[in-house]
Prior knowledge:
It contains one helix and no strands. The chain has one helix at residues 2-152.
Amino acid sequence: MGVMKKDVNFIFFILIIAVVVSxxxxxxxxQISFRNINVEYDTKLAELNKVTVDLLExxxxxxxxxxxxxxxxxxxxxxxxxxxxxxxxxxxxKDERDSFxxxxxxxxxxxxQKKAQVTAxxxxxxxxxxxxxxxxxxxxxxxxxxEDCEAVCPG
Length: 155
C-alpha cells in the first residue's frame, strides 16, 4: 500500500502543479486580455475626446456663423428700410423738382410777357413824351404869342 500511497501523492502533486500552471496560464491570458481591452478603451476614449473637441470647435464655428448670419440679416433689413426711405425721398424730390420746373417755365413765360409789356409801355412813354414835348412847344409858342399880344395891346 505504500506504493499506492506514493502514486496517489504523486498524482495529487501533479494535479496541484497542473492546477497552479492552469491558474498561472489563465491569469496571464486574462491579464493580457485585460491589458488589450484597457489599451483599446484608452484609444477609444482618446478618439472620443478628439471627436468631442472637434464637435465643440464646430459648434463654436456654427454659433459664430449663426451670429454673423443674424447680423447680416439685420443689416440687410436695415438697408432695405433705408433703401425704401431713400426711394421715397427721391420720389418726393423728383415731384418737387418737376413742380419747380413747371413754376420756372410759368415764371419765365410771365417774365417774357412782362418784358414785352415793359417794352410796349416804354415805346408808349417815348411817344407820349414826344407828344408832350410837341404840346409843350406849342404851349410855349402860344404863351409867347399871348405875351406878345398883351405887350402890344395892354389891357
